[in-house]
Amino acid sequence: xxxxxxxxxxxxxxxxxxxxxxxxxxxxxxxxxxxxxxxxxxxxxxxxxxxxxxxxxxxxxxxxxxxxxxxxxxxxxxxxxxxxxxxxxxxxxxxxxxxxxxxxxxxxxxxxxxxxxxxxxxxxxxxxxxxxxxxxxxxxxxxxxxxxxxxxxxxxxxxxxxxxxxxxxxxxxxxxxxxxxxxxxxxxxxxxxxxxxxxxxxxxxxxxxxxxxxxxxxxxxxxxxxxxxxxxxxxxxxxxxxxxxxxxxxxxxxxxxxxxxxxxxxxxxxxxxxxxxxxxxxxxxxxxxxxxxxxxxxxxxxxxxxxxxxxxxxxxxxxxxxxxxxxxxxxxxxxxxxxxxxxxxxxxxxxxxxxxxxxxxxxxxxxxxxxxxxxxxxxxxxxxxxxxxxxxxxxxxxxxxxxxxxxxxxxxxxxxxxxxxxxxxxxxxxxxxxxxxxxxxxxxxxxxxxxxxxxxxxxxxxxxxxxxxxxxxxxxxxxxxxxxxxx
Amino acid sequence: xxxxxxxxxxxxxxxxxxxxxxxxxxxxxxxxxxxxxxxxxxxxxxxxxxxxxxxxxxxxxxxxxxxxxxxxxxxxxxxxxxxxxxxxxxxxxxx
Lengths: 487, 95
Known about the structure:
Order of helices and strands of chain A: HHEHEHEHEHEEHEHEHHHHEHHEEH
CATH class of the domain at 5-43 in chain B: Mainly Alpha
Number of strands of chain A: 11
CATH topology of the domain at 5-256 and 414-482 in chain A: Amidase signature (AS) enzymes
Strand order of the largest sheet of chain A: 1-3-2-4-6-5-10-11-9-7-8
CATH topology of the domain at 5-43 in chain B: Histone, subunit A
Number of strands of chain B: 2
Oligomer: heterodimer
Helix content of chain A: 25-40%
Distance between the termini of chain A: 13 Å
Radius of gyration of chain A: 21 Å
Largest sheet of chain A: 11 strands, mixed
CATH architecture of the domain at 5-256 and 414-482 in chain A: Alpha-Beta Complex
Helix content of chain B: 25-40%
Largest sheet of chain B: 2 strands, antiparallel
Shape of chain B: flat
Structural class of chain B: mainly alpha
CATH class of the domain at 5-256 and 414-482 in chain A: Alpha Beta
CATH architecture of the domain at 5-43 in chain B: Orthogonal Bundle
CATH superfamily of the domain at 5-256 and 414-482 in chain A: Amidase signature (AS) domain
Number of helices of chain B: 3
Strand content of chain B: under 5%
Strand content of chain A: 5-15%
Shape of chain A: globular
């Protein structure tokens, strides 16, 4: 690992690949070596695909030699283990799918393959993406590279930790209530949740279908734009995939924020937020002001306090319906020690699902059941409308809104496992964005006692370019994203 | 809002989810606590507000009426816990 190639960004590596100063095989080997060195401490990967990765790297080197390289050709990446990979185990970090080998690739995996990207393996997560720390993984907990006694965030904790630890150049995550942004914030990496409908969900194991969205975790904003370029496209196999054309997301990256209107919603700076986090975000916003943005510190989204309840009714309701498919008949874990169909089904689900998944299935089933549907599910859907309308109104006045990504820095492993509500509060700043279907990014914005703080930038639907522009200008003017965990 | 043992068992039956005695007790407590926190929603005035089921303006997306290849039977059945020829084998449904 003499040259630390595993710590290159996509755009740096691409330049070296194109000018033949580095081969994809060398780059891939550097990442794999680092994976094997670091995994015993970080535990970010469920599956490592060494052989396949090296084969793909050789193929990529041929493409590069033929002058057919695009920005992701030969670049090693990691896929969250809830996206189907043909012939490679896709477990969702659940006992239910521990041995599941998909017969097809997810839409995003097809797109990475067609770019000639290299797949290093599958990353750890909270079981079925339900959680904020990876502690709900049925396989093992991922450790934060900045402090191994702390969580990396979740649910895409494996993806974020692996990027932070230089195990991969980039990773894909999925975000239902903050599952890309919160771990990105906790691990000092850049993580984007695109607008609902921007990236195909085909082949993403469904959790809450009206909220789920796939996005990149990278080392900087330029890389984020490059991965988004590769994965954002219409896909007729996902009926919520939006047919509008995708721009080249690297074109919006400039350092000039003159005239940009930024709102700071005050409801995101109240109770429960750690002082150092609030302070770091205020300092970061001052920086954006210096760069030319016009900041209104008194923006308001009054329904914000209801978002947590709305989310934890809607997401579990959708999950309880989506997870009904795990019946032990078609694939996955199957309890066999009975002749009764109903008992087999109940026991399959009893032994196949972990505690948090069961809790959410129960919560969702309750909210959808006769007598409670109007009071919970329908009520939550109506308040969802109010939350969306409030964002719509805010975006008439502002180009972007800025908040902390999470109210605290990464917490200790074990600290919140016995208190589901405390764990849910970790996503209080990110889940309103999924409720409204908006795009948002988390970028590094400082440290408190050596632990990363993330800043969230939110824009109106399909305004990813505004977000990337602000985030890029901030990264050019500061250097937080260049700080690496020493491990 | 306290969820009784009977209610927990009823929901578990609806979800076809087997639970141990410990889980029933724990869930009764935890779900009660969570639902109590969600009571706050009832304070929001939503009269005349339509529900939102999803956030994008797409409506009635239909596919082109075209024959496309699907996965071969063998691949579809490859993950089956119990297989009988080209069928999924299930437990007896009607005694």
